[in-house]
Amino acid sequence: MGKLTKNQKKTQELLEVGKEYSLEDASKLVKEITFSKFDASVDIDIRLGVDPKKADQMVRGVVSLPHGVGKEVRVLVLCTPDKEEEAKYAGADHVGLDEYIKKIEGGWTDIDVIITMPTVMVQVGKLGRILGPRGLMPNPKSGTVTMDIAQTVTEVKAGKIDFKVDKFGIIHTSIGKVSFHSDKIRENALEMLQTVSKLKPSSAKGTYFKSITLSSTMSSGISIDKSSIGSI
Q1: Is-contact 215 221, C-beta < 8 A?
Q2: Across all residues in the chain, what is the average pLDDT?
Q3: Angle 222-225-227 from CA coordinates, rounded to 5°
Q4: 86 vs 89: CA distance, rounded Å
Q5: How many whole angstroms separate alpha carbon 169 and alpha carbon 99?
Q6: Percentage of residues in the chain with pLDDT exceeding 70?
Q7: CA 9 vs CA 3, 6, 33: distances in Å
Q8: Measured by CB atoms within 10 angstroms of the end CB, which terminus of the chain is less buried, N or C?
Q9: Span 91-128, pLDDT tens digits
Q10: How would you class 172 by CB atoms within 10 Å of its CB: exposed for 0-12, middle for 13-18, buried for 19 or more?
Q11: Average pLDDT over residues 182-192
Q12: What are phi and psi of 139, to 5 degrees?
């Protein structure tokens, strides 16, 4: 076994193996055990007691984080010409339709979120094989297929994110940056957990929240004591 680095030793001193921490303490600790030179993302992993193979247990939703995610979200709006000015005014980074469909067909996916309209979903739907695997396909359930383009662009830019459980029953998403004050990390995490709690499928039996882990891009995971969170 190789020698531990200085940072690994410090992590061992701060993070007790097998211990579950309150959300408040974990939000402080994740900052202390992150030693990257860049502003790492803070991630939350929520393991749920659901079977994603069953359609009625697929947990998916959107959440508006009170403090955003700490990064510039690149938004593409695919819309008809009459909605272009509205989208641009709201802050969309790219706006158009046919030219961007061609760009995506050519392999361009340098964006974080795509917002579109129900009336053009026939055209956008053809991009499913490209956008689907990258998590970029607009979906009415995530609010990215809408006629209210301006409001949706504004919300996404402000920190609205969509999430869904993966095939292992885990929701994994970023909820901020290590540079955030610990209170902001805690409040973003709490908003996320409360949103997921409201989405519990009626067909899901047993324990819904199996485990909750907080980490940064370059840190160890911190197990959260579910009893410290309240009514989830």
Answers
A1: yes
A2: 91
A3: 160
A4: 5
A5: 37
A6: 97
A7: 10, 5, 10
A8: N
A9: 999 999 999 999 999 999 999 999 999 999 999 999 99
A10: middle
A11: 96
A12: -150, 130
Is 145 within 8 Å of 121 (Cβ atoms)? yes
Report the sign of the C-alpha dihedral through residues 182, 187, 190, 195, in that order.
negative
| Best CA proximity match to 196, nearest among 211, 177, 185, 182 | 211
Residue 41 CA to residue 55 CA, distance in Å, equals 31
More confident residue, 162 or 231: 162
Structure tokens at 149: 């383009």
Q: Which residues pair with 161 in a beta bridge?
A: 63
Count of residues making up the chain: 232
CA 63 to chain centre: 8
What is the CB neighbour count within 10 angstroms for residue 147? 11
End-to-end CA distance of the chain: 41
Q: What is the mean pLDDT of residues 167-183?
A: 94
- Per DSSP, the three-state class of 57 is helix
Over the stretch 53-101, which tens digit does the pLDDT of each residue have? 998 998 988 898 999 888 888 999 999 999 999 999 999 999 999 999 9
3-state secondary structure of 124: helix
Taking 60 as the threshold, does the pLDDT of residue 1 lie above it?
no
